[in-house]
Each structure stands twice: as structure tokens, then as C-alpha cells.
Write a structure and sequence with these properties.
By secondary structure, this protein is an alpha+beta fold. The protein has 2 domains: 75 residues, Immunoglobulins (Immunoglobulin-like, Sandwich), CATH 2.60.40; 193 residues, Beta Barrel (Cyclophilin). The protein has 5 helices and 17 strands. A hairpin with a 2-residue loop joins strand 6 and strand 7. The protein starts with a helix and ends with a strand.
Length: 295
């Protein structure tokens, strides 16, 4: 074999090696305001596997992932395209802006929810945000779950609670004055403050930390009319439409302070409501929570 042949053989080997190298490239689109969902389009070539690093501590091996950023900031997204031992990396910076509303990311083993806190109930809003920032709720349980009614949590005594332990009496040592608002009603997904009932709490002051999220039952026009005649509440068209569409617990209106609402993840409420419970309505398998401010 002459030198020319050897030269061309080497070129062919180099070309063959280069042809097997993966090419990493991607594009994206979506909402750049937290908790924005970004749809990533994988444009890699000659790759068999993929590893995405979203720059916020999470990764994915999906080919075309949809990722939600739960905080604002600049995130360097990396796509590693692999083919055997060969790999190529592409990167792009994505800027996520802070939301205008007060939003909470509530994470459970059964899925995630995004909750909007209402400005119309400032005392409850500010207290809840303070507790979230202090990680007060992290690793607490949804300790009382009633299908067709609500899911309740926020008792600090539920952290690492033994099976069968009596829960629902704990709190931060203070209560909050009621902030009733006729426009904020107990439709499915409503976030409301638990409280002590009966004559010991005539002002209907709220627990400092315990809350519930409405699961609810179907609501009819007739049942709303009955509630109006019994309580004096006058439901507007918006409240009626939402009750008829989503269901809820209108019997609780103006008895417990509604201070927020689940705006994403209503299906997670369904999942939690359907878990197996013991005789005290506590889930047999613990449903833990983690709450973070979306900012």
C-alpha cells in the first residue's frame, strides 16, 4: 500500500469517526414568567440518548421535555447528546421573570399544585407567606382528608407523627382575625384557614397555620338558592358559574376565611382525597407537603 492509499484510508477513518459523533442542538418556547412551563424541542442528530440539565437543580432524560421553572432567575440549560461514549453539549441561557401575584408551589408525593394567595385577605396572605419562607410546612402531613369535602394540613405536630397519633390541635401559638369576603367562596381548589369551632371562638378567628383545600361535591342552582336564603349571602354570576362547573362546599362560606386558590393541579386534590384513610380520616400512607414561594 503506497503513501497515497494510506493517506486516504486515514481520511476515511476520520470521516467515519466524525460521522458517528452526535450533534447537540435545541430550541424552546413557552411562558417565561414563573411558574412558567417551557417546551424544549430537541434538534440533536445522531444521538441515542439525552440528558437535560435545566440549571435549577433538576434534570431529565426525556427527548422532548416540558419543564416548569418555579422561581425567577437566569438558568443555563444544557443538553448533552450521547451516542455510545461520544457526546456533545449545547447550552442556552433562559431568563425567567418573577410573577406579579403571590404564588405558592405546594409539592406532594402525589403531584404538585400552584396556589394563588388573595390580596383581599392581607393578614392571612402575609402570615402564610411568612410561614412558607420559614419552611414551617415542610414535611408536615395532610392529616385529615375527607373525599368530597376537603384535605387539611398545617399541624406542626404532624411532622414525624406516629401512626395513630391524634392530630389537628397544633399551631404556631397564635390565631388570625377572620377576613370574610363574599367574593371569595369555597369552590373546588379554594384555600381556607381552619379554626376552632363552637362558642370558644365567637369571632371565628383562624388557626395560625392549619389550612384546608376544598375538594367539594357537585353544587346545583337550587342548593345555592337555599344557601342564600339561609345565610343572606348573595352569590354573583361568577361565583354561581364556578360552583356549578367545579363544585365545592358552599355551606362553609363566611364561616371560614378563604384566602387563596389552587390555580394549577386540581387533579392532585382528587388524588389525595381518594387515598385510603383510617378511622380518624388520616391517610394510611402519609401524604407529606413541601411549600415554596414562587418569586
Amino acid at each position: 500500500m503506497n503513501n497515497v492509499s494510506v493517506f486516504f484510508l486515514v481520511l476515511l477513518l476520520i470521516a467515519s469517526f466524525a460521522c458517528n459523533r452526535p450533534v447537540s442542538r435545541f430550541s424552546w418556547e413557552g411562558n417565561t414568567v414563573a411558574p412558567g412551563a417551557i417546551h424544549f424541542k430537541n434538534e440533536a442528530k445522531k444521538a441515542t440518548d439525552f440528558l437535560w440539565d435545566f440549571g435549577d437543580g433538576t434534570i431529565s432524560v426525556d427527548s422532548m421535555p416540558v419543564h416548569r421553572f418555579y422561581s425567577s432567575g437566569n438558568f443555563m440549560v444544557r443538553l448533552t447528546a450521547l451516542n455510545g461514549k461520544k457526546k456533545r453539549i449545547s447550552m442556552e441561557n433562559i431568563t425567567i421573570k418573577a410573577p406579579e401575584d403571590c404564588l405558592i408551589h405546594l409539592s406532594t408525593s402525589l403531584g404538585d399544585m400552584v396556589i394563588k394567595l388573595y390580596d383581599e385577605t392581607p393578614a392571612h396572605r402575609d402570615n402564610f407567606m411568612k410561614l412558607v419562607e420559614e419552611a414551617y410546612f415542610d414535611s408536615l402531613l395532610f392529616h385529615r382528608v375527607i373525599d368530597g369535602f376537603m384535605i387539611q394540613g398545617g399541624d406542626p405536630q404532624s411532622r414525624n407523627a406516629a401512626k395513630g397519633a391524634r392530630l389537628g390541635m397544633g399551631g404556631p401559638g397564635y390565631t388570625i382575625p377572620a377576613e370574610f369576603n363574599d367574593q371569595l367562596v369555597h369552590v373546588k381548589g379554594a384555600l381556607a384557614a381552619a379554626r376552632t369551632g363552637g362558642p370558644s371562638n365567637p369571632e371565628m378567628r383562624s388557626s395560625g397555620s392549619q389550612f384546608y383545600i376544598v375538594h367539594g361535591a357537585p353544587v346545583s342552582e337550587n342548593s345555592l338558592k337555599i344557601m342564600e336564603s339561609r345565610t343572606g349571602i348573595k352569590y354573583g354570576d361568577k361565583q354561581k358559574e364556578e360552583y356549578l362547573a367545579l363544585g365545592g362546599t358552599p355551606q362553609l362560606d363566611n364561616n371560614y376565611t378563604v384566602f387563596g386558590r389552587v390555580i394549577e393541579g386540581l387533579d392532585v386534590i382528587d388524588k389525595i382525597a381518594k387515598v385510603q384513610k383510617d378511622g380518624a380520616d388520616r391517610p394510611v400512607s402519609d401524604v407529606l407537603m413541601t411549600l415554596k414561594l414562587i418569586k
